Amino acid sequence: MHKLATPMCDNELGREILKQLGALQLNGMVPPNGMERSLVKASMSMQKPALMEVHMRFMKQFSELERDWQLMKDPLAAKPETRPAKKKAVSLEGMRSIRLLELKVGKRYHGRVLHATLCADAFFLNLIQTMVEDEDGYAARVMIEDSLAGLTSWAKVQGRYPNGAKIAIKAPLLSELPDDSVALYVNTEDDLIVQSDFPAVSVEVNVWAKLDAAALRAEGNRLFAKQDWTGSIELYTKCIQKCLDSVRRKPTSNKHKKKGASENGTTSNGKVVDETVMLAFSNRAAAWMKSCHYERALKDAHEALTLEPHHLKSIYRKGCALHGMQQYELACKCFELALEQSPEKDIKLALQKSQTCDMQSRRGVYELSKYLVGGFEGPLPEFSDYVGPVEIRSSEGRCRRGLFVTKDVEVGELLLVSNALVVVHNGNHATGKNTSPSGRSNALLRDELLCSLSNLLLKSPKWLEQACSLADCECHGNTKVPPLELFRPNSKWTAGKEDVVLPRLKGVLLQNALDESGSCTRVLQAGRGSQFLGLWPLPSFINHSCTANAVRLHVGDALFLHASRHLEAGEEVTLAYVNTLLPKQMRHELLEKDHWEFTCSCSRCDLESNLSAPLKQVTKRFQSLWGWKEAVTPGQVECFKMAKLALRLEHLLKQKGLYLYERQLVRASFFVAYWVGYLNIDRLGTLCVKLPLPDMLIDAVTAVAPSDTMTSFFAGYWLKRLEEQGASRPVIHDAQQRAIHIYRCVYGNQTSGLLKQLLEAHEANTIL
Ligand SMILES: C[S@@+](CC[C@H](N)C(=O)[O-])C[C@H]1O[C@@H](n2cnc3c(N)ncnc32)[C@H](O)[C@@H]1O
Asked: Where are the TPR repeats (predicted)?
C-alpha cells in the first residue's frame, strides 16, 4: 500500500485533504506502489522523456484522486481555482546563469540562477512537485518544500506554477534523496520565482550594461583569478560583444569589415582594431582551456592572433589548446615560435611536454619503471594516447565490432594507450579530463560518471563523436566501424554531425564503462581509492573472452593495453570483463550482474557446458563453499572440503579423458579449491599429497588468465616455497623464468631486471 508521507503543511484544510487522501488510499484509489519511486528514478538521469512519462502518469492519478475527493465533499468545489495573487519583491541582480547539467549533487550554487520553463502540471503530496526544462532541453524534477501555505489544492498549485511558465531558481541545489536518486530542491518558495513576479533577464542585462568593454574585461579577469572559469567566459564574451557592437556602429570600421572580416566581425588584415577585444579573446582562450574546452580555446587564440599575430600569450595559449586536442606536433611548433620571442620557463616546459607526448604517441615508448617500482608513489604523469598495431573491424555474431591486431604480436607488446574520457574514483584524489572524488556506491558512481560524461561531451566534438561511436545497451544498430583516426593523436579529423541524448549515453556507459575488476586488470594508482569506474574510448571496442589475450594496466587515468599471449596477425584482441578463475556458471552470473547483456559462448564455456551434469554438481558444491573465499586462513574443515572437491574434480577429468589443455581450462575454473589445498599443505597432510603438483595449477591458470593477480601471486608463492625447501638450482631457475614470463604478461615488455625486481618485491609481500 502506497503511504503518504507526513505533510509539511500546518494548514487545517491541507491536513484535511491529506487525511481524505489517506482514506482514498484505503479504498484502493492510490497511485500504484512504486509510482513515485519511478519518478525519482527517472529524475536521476535527467532523461526528459522518461521523467515526463512517469510524471504524467502520476499527475493523472493524482488529479483523479483529488477530483473524487472534491466531489465527495462538495461538487462545486471541484472547479479549478484561480491563481492566488502573490507579489514578491524579488531581485536577480548580480546573479549569473547556470545550467542543469552543470549542477553537482549536494552543492548549492549561491549567486547563480537557473532559468527554466515549467514543463508539466504541478501537483503536491507533502510538498509541491513539478518538472522544469532548462534552455538546453534537459529536464529535472523539482521539489518545493516550504510551499503549501495557502496552496491547499491541486488546482491552486497548478495556478501558482502553470505549465509553460518561465521560472528562475535562485541558489539551486541538486539534492540526494533517500533512495539514491536526485532532484532539484527548493527550500523556500522565495527561491523559485515565476516569471510574472520579476522582469526576467533584463535585471542582469542592466547590471552589465553599465560597464564599458575594459571594465567587463577587468571583471572577467577578477573572476578568472577566482578560478570561476564560466563566469569569466561570460564577461569576456560581453566585453567582446560590446567592442564588436561599437565597431559595427562606426562607419569607418565597416570598411575594415569588408576587407577581411572573420565571423566574429573582427578584421584579419593585420591591423589591430582594438587591443581590448584582442585581449578579451586571448583571456577567454585561457578560460576555455581551464575548463577543458580546447577547440573553443584554439578558436579564441586564433581570433586574438588574427588581430595581433605576435601576441606571445596567444601563441602560447594556442599551443596549449593544440596540446589538449592531442595535436602535439602543431603544439610544438607554437611553443617553438613563442620561444623565439621569449625564453620563458613555462614555455620551455610546455614544449618539452608536447615533445614527449608527440614521441609517445608515434612510437609507443613509455617510461613506466619509476611507477612500477617504488610502491607506485609520486605525482601522476601525463601520458599521450597511442594507437599501436590494432584496428577496429566488424566482429562475428552478437559482438558487432571488435579490436584486431594488424601484425603478429609478442607477449608483453604494447597495443594501445588510452586516456579516460571520464573516470570517477571511490576514494581521495582524482585528476584527468573529468574526474571526481567521491565515496559512493556503485550506482552512484555510475550516475556521477553519466553526469561528468554529459558535461564533457558539450566541450569537444571529437569526444562527442568518440562516445557516439560506442555501442549502447539497446544495440541501436551501432555497427558502424569508426575510423581509427578518431582515436589517434596528431590525426587530421573533421567533426561529423553527431548528436547524443542522455538515455543513449547511459546505455553507452552500461556497455562500456570499465572498473578495477576483471582477470586481466592491474591498477597502479598512488594515493587513490582502489574502486573506480571510467570510460576509455578505443578499449571500449574490445570484446570479452574467458581466455583473454590482453591485459589492461591502469596508470593514473591512462589505460595501457598489452598482449598477454602471442597473437597472430588478424587475431581478435580480448579482455576478461570478470574474474575468469571461476566456474562457468559464476562467470556468467558476474557478466549478468555487471549489465554486459550477453552470454559468453567461448570455447571454454562450451567445454564446461559439455561436461554438464557431473561438473554442475562440483560447481554447486564449490559455490556453497565459496562464501569464505576471501579468508586467507579459513577453518581446517572448510579447507579440507575444498581440497576434497579438487580431488573430486581431478577424478572427473580423468574419467572424461580430456586433452591437457582442456584439463587446464577446467582446473583454472576451480583454482581456489586447489589453492586452499596447497596453502594448507602442512595442515591437511596426506590429502594434499594426492593433488597434482602446484606447477600444474600454475600452468592451468596461466593458460586461462596469464595476467590475473592470482596467477602472478601463485607463481611468486611457489618460487619462494621451492627456495625454502632447498630445491635444486635448475628447478628454482625454471620456476623463476616462468614467474618472470607471467610478470611480462602483466606489466608488458619491461626489462628482465625490472621484472625480476618486481617479482622480488612481490615475494617479500607473499603470505606464507
Ligand atoms: C565494450 S563493448 C565491446 C564492443 C562491442 N562489441 C561493439 O561493437 O562496440 C561490450 C559489448 O560487446 C558485446 N560483447 C562483448 N563480448 C562479447 C562476447 N564474448 N559475446 C557476445 N557479445 C559480446 C556485448 O554486447 C557487450 O555488452
From this structure: 278-311
Q: Pick the atom of ligand 1 nearest to 470's CA.
A: 9
If one residue of 596, 599, 601 were mutated to test the ligand 1 pocket, choosing by the most ligand atoms within 8 A of its CB, it would be 596
What is the rounded CA–CA span in Å between residue 587 and residue 596? 12
**Candidate from 473, 542, 543 with most ligand 1 atoms within 8 A of CB, to mutate:** 543
Ligand 1 pocket (Cβ < 6 Å) reads 398-402, 470-471, 511-512, 540-541, 543-544, 596-598, 600
* Domain formed by 383-580, architecture: Beta Complex (2.170)
Helices 603-610 and 660-669, interaxial angle, to 10°? Answer: 90
pLDDT tens per residue, range 417-454: 999 999 988 754 334 454 433 334 566 677 778 767 87
Query: Which among 290, 533, 542, 291 is positioned nearest to 425, based on CA atoms?
Result: 533
- pLDDT single digits (tens) 79-131: 444 444 444 445 677 788 888 888 888 888 888 889 898 888 787 655 778 88
With CA atoms as reference, report the closest residue to 301 among 334, 332, 327, 269.
334
Yes or no: domain 12-83+90-199 corresponds to CATH 3.40.309.10: no
Q: Give domain limits for the chain.
A: 12-83+90-199, 211-363, 383-580, 586-765
Residue 77 has pLDDT above 50, yes or no: no
What is the number of the ligand 1 atom nearest to the C-alpha of 540?
1
Query: Distance from the CA of 513 to the center of ligand 1, in angstroms?
Result: 12
What cell does 398 get? Answer: 552478437
Would you say the ipTM is above 0.95?
yes
Which helix (H) or strand (E) element contains residue 55?
helix 48-73
Question: Is this structure's pTM higher than 0.90?
Answer: no
Per-residue CA distances from 680 to 27, 616, 626, 666, 674 (Å): 64, 26, 17, 22, 10
Which residue type occupies 694? P
Q: How far is CA 130 from the centre of its chain?
A: 29
* CB of 534 closer than 8 Å to CB of 431: no
Distance (Å, whole) CA 106 – CA 320:
33
Class of the domain covering 211-363:
mainly alpha
